[in-house]
Amino acid sequence: MVSRPLITVLGASGFIGSSVVAELARRPVRLRTVARRPTARAATGRTPADVETRAVDLSRPGGLAEAVAGSDAVIHLAAHLEGAGSWRTADGNPSAGRLNTGLVRELADALRPARAALRPPPVVLFASTATASADTWATADGTGHLSGYERQKLAAERLLADATAEGALCGVSLRLPTVFGPAPAPAVDRGVVSAMARRALDGAPITMWHDGTVRRDLLYVRDAAAAFAAALDHAPALAGRHWSVGSGRGTPLGDVFRALAATVADRTGRPPVPVRRVEPPAHASAADFRDVRADHAPFRSVTGWAPRVPLDEALSRTVAALAGPQGKDLL
């Protein structure tokens, strides 16, 4: 009898992590969920997967090797979520640096014995960012215009590529744009789309720090989870590189917010809340005013993956989920 593969998800109780767990739980695999707080069993329910949960604080040294022991694949979705947001607090933050970069180095060290035992190299999928592009944003030294968060993600990509070249693992970095949508409790989408949807549901104006022409590539969370599943299925063909995963188009945020206001109005029966420009706060950075578009064509050519949920439907599902428990049925 062939043993079921063991897939370990780091950061399994997080926003993207909970959706990845739900996606993989549909498969006949052994699924180990690793998170600082308990992973909701409701995210998996009665499924073909054998699910094991482990509580590990990955922001602290120790425990990682045991958490990934015996894994055929590891999906690294752990993120630093304190303060104003993970990427804004990356500069000079040891916890952010450990999760965004150091954990990849520790993963390679932890997984090397599996390769030494003549097993196929374990697969490691890493959640990077669409803006970690030295070609697009950086100066000649490869770091100049990148934020601390972007530098950490880029460094992790390089560590993963080096470990893949060495044969210690089969590493794949997925560069994600803005991912949004509802998620099973206790996970929460802390992103701008849900934040503005909550404001509109409360009857407050939607605010933006620019004239609305800044473009963002918006990816529904279920589509993001499906991308990780596709990468898992095609890891050998993707190994050693980074791959952009997104909708393939940049939508002006002003249009997104006006559509969001209209969606909330349809649900509540109230007039749409206004969309207003406000002065950016002191913690705003250049990254907040960049256009972002993630070209998923190369990834699609290898895996066949493409986003399935149109933006208007994704916004509607997000608003429905945030409006009340009855909206969960629409997810």
Q: Notable features of this structure?
A:
two-stranded parallel sheet; 37% helix; seven-stranded parallel sheet; 331 residues; disordered C terminus
Helix/strand structural class: alpha/beta
Q: Helicity level, as a percent range?
A: 25-40%
Report the span from N to C terminus: 36 Å
Q: Based on CA inertia axes, which overall geometry fits?
A: globular
Order of helices and strands: EHEEHEHEHHEEHEEEHHEEHEHH
Low-pLDDT runs of 5+ residues are 134-143, 326-331
Overall pLDDT score: 86
- How many helices? 11
User: Approximately how much beta-strand content do the residues carry?
Assistant: 15-25%
- Calculate Rg over CA atoms: 20 Å
Strand tally is 13
Order the strands across the largest sheet as they lie in space. Answer: 3-2-1-4-5-6-11
Summarize the main sheet.
Answer: 7 strands, parallel
Structure explained in plain terms:
This protein has 331 residues and is an alpha/beta fold. The strands form 4 sheets. It has a 7-stranded parallel β-sheet with strand order 3-2-1-4-5-6-11, sandwiched between helices. It has a two-stranded parallel sheet with strand order 7-10. The chain contains 11 helices and 13 strands. β1 (6-10), α1 (15-24) and β2 form a beta-alpha-beta unit. α9 (253-268) crosses α11. The model is unreliable at 134-143 and 326-331 (pLDDT under 50).
